[in-house]
Amino acid sequence: MVQKKTDQKKTCRRVLTSKMKALSSKAESCLLKPALDSHTESSELEHKSISDPVTPSVDMESSDEDSAPGPDDFSGLSPYERKRMKNIRENANFFASLQLAESAARLRGMIKKNQPPESKRKRPKKKENEVGCRRSMRLLKVDPLGVSLPASLTQPTLVEEETPMIPPGPLEMIPENQDDCSELFKASLKTWAEMSQTSNEKTKKGLSSIKSYKASLSGMVVSEATIRKVTKGAISSVAIHPSGVRTLVAAGSKSGQVGLWDLTQQSEDGAYAFCPHSQPVSCLSFSPTNPAHLLSLSYDGTVRCGDFSTAVFEEVYRNERNSLSSFDFLDDASTLLVGHWSGHLSLVDRRTPGTSYEKFINSSLEKIRTVHVHPLSRQYFITAGLRDVHVYDVRCLKSGKSQPLISLTEHSKSIASAYFSPVTGNRVVTTCADCKLRVFDSSSLSSQFPLVSTIRHNTITGRWLTRFQAVWDPKQEDCFTVGSMAHPRRVEVFHETGKNVHSFGGECLVSVCSLSVMHPTRYILAGGNCSGRLHVFMHQET
C-alpha cells in the first residue's frame, strides 16, 4: 500500500513538472510578441490549460487571492508560478503602455532631420598665371634679378681685442690723466727725488708691546680725503714710499697702469697715472737702497724701474716667452730674483747693460706666485707655488741643484702668498685658498718649519677681486695685515698666535680692500680695491 502511494506521488510530480515547463515557455513567448496580441495569446493559453487534464497536486496550499477564479488564472500551476506569470504579464502591459518603440522611432527621425547634409569643400582651381604668396628668394637660394649671389656666405670671425705690447726701451714718465707739461707734476717729481735721499737712512726700533701697538692702530682712520681713484682697473699691487715726511703711495692695476698719489698735496692733481705695461702689474716695490726708484713687474714679461730723478721708466728685464709673477731684491738690491708663472726663476743684474737675465733656473715647480728673500740670510728665499711652499738656497740653484731645502706641505689648496717676517725672518705667514692663514716657525733654516698657529679666514674672493695676501708689518714683525670679506668692510690685523689685534673700518670703507701694506716707520696703512681706489688709514694729524 505504501509502495503504491509512493509511485502515485512520483507520477504526479513527473506530469506536473512537464506541464509547468510547457506553460512557462508559452508565457515567456507571449511577452516577446507585441502588446496588441497579448490578450489573444493569453486566452489561448487559458483555453489550452483548461482542456488539458491535470492531475491535482498533493498537499498543495494556496492563498485566497491566487486561487480566485478569473480569466487570467493558471489553474494548472503552483501558486509561485501563477504569481510569477502574473507579474510578467503586468510588466509587459506597463511597458507596452509606454510606447517606447514609437518614441524611439520618432527620435531617430528627428535626429536624421537635424543632421546637416554632408558637403565636401571644393578646392579652388589654380589659375595658370596667378601670383602666389611672397617668399624669400634668399631662403629659396634663388639669385635676384640682375644680381648674382656669392657662392658661399662666410660668417664673420670675432677677433679678440689684444692690448698691444709696450715697445722695448725706456719710456718717459708722462701721466695719462694730466697734462705732460704740468709744472705741478715736474715739481712733484723733484720733491719725490729729494725726499728719497733723506729717507735712505733706516731707523731701527725695537718691537712695541701689543698694548701700545694696538693703541697706535686705534687712532688710524680713513676719510673721504684719504680715498682716491688712481688707476682704471682693479688694483693688483700696492707699495708705500718709506719717507718720514711725505706720504706717497704707489698702486699697480690689472690694466697695466702704475698710479702715484701724494697725499701731502690736497689738490685734485695729487694723483698721477702712467702706463708702462700692457698687462696686470702684479708686483711693486721701492728700492731699499734708493727709494727714488720704483720697480714694477707685469704679466707682459717685463720689469721696469721708474726713476723720479730722470722721469723715465727704464726697462730692466724682458722675457716675452714666460709670463712673470713676482720679484724680490738680492744682496744690495742690485740683483733681482724673478719668479715666473711657469715655475722657473731668473736672476737679473740691474748693473749689466741690456734686458736679459744672468741665469735662468729650471725648477720642478708647477707655478710660482710669490718669491721672498730672507731679511738676514739673503741667500735663502721662499716661494709660494700651486700647493706647496718651498725654501731654496740661491747658491744651490746657481750650481744646478733645483731641489728645495724645506717644503711646507700642510696646505690643501692653492697658495696666494708666503712671506718671511721683515726683521728677523723667524716667522713665515702663508695665505691659502682653503680659508686658512698659517704661521710657521722659521728660526732654523736647517730643519722643517713647525706650525705655530692656524687662523680661520675667508679667502674666497671670487673672480673679480684680487686674491688676499697676508703681509707683515715692518714696524711690528709679529703682526700682519690681510683683507677681509666680512661685513661691514674691514682690513684686519692678526698676531702670530692667531689673535685679532685690530680691525680697520669705517663708514667710508664700503668695498673690499684685497691688498694692504703698512708704512715701514709710520702708522699708515694703504689698501687697494677692485675699482682702482686707494684707501689710506692714518692719524688725523699725519
UniProtKB/TrEMBL annotation:
Protein name (Swiss-Prot/TrEMBL): WD repeat-containing protein 76
Family from the record: Belongs to the WD repeat DDB2/WDR76 family.
Region: Disordered, residue numbers: 36-79, 111-131
Record function comment: Specifically binds 5-hydroxymethylcytosine (5hmC), suggesting that it acts as a specific reader of 5hmC.
Keywords of this entry: Repeat, WD repeat
Species for this entry: Rattus norvegicus
PANTHER family: WD REPEAT-CONTAINING PROTEIN 76
Subunit structure: Interacts with CUL4A and/or CUL4B.
Ranges of biased composition (kind: Basic and acidic residues): 36-50
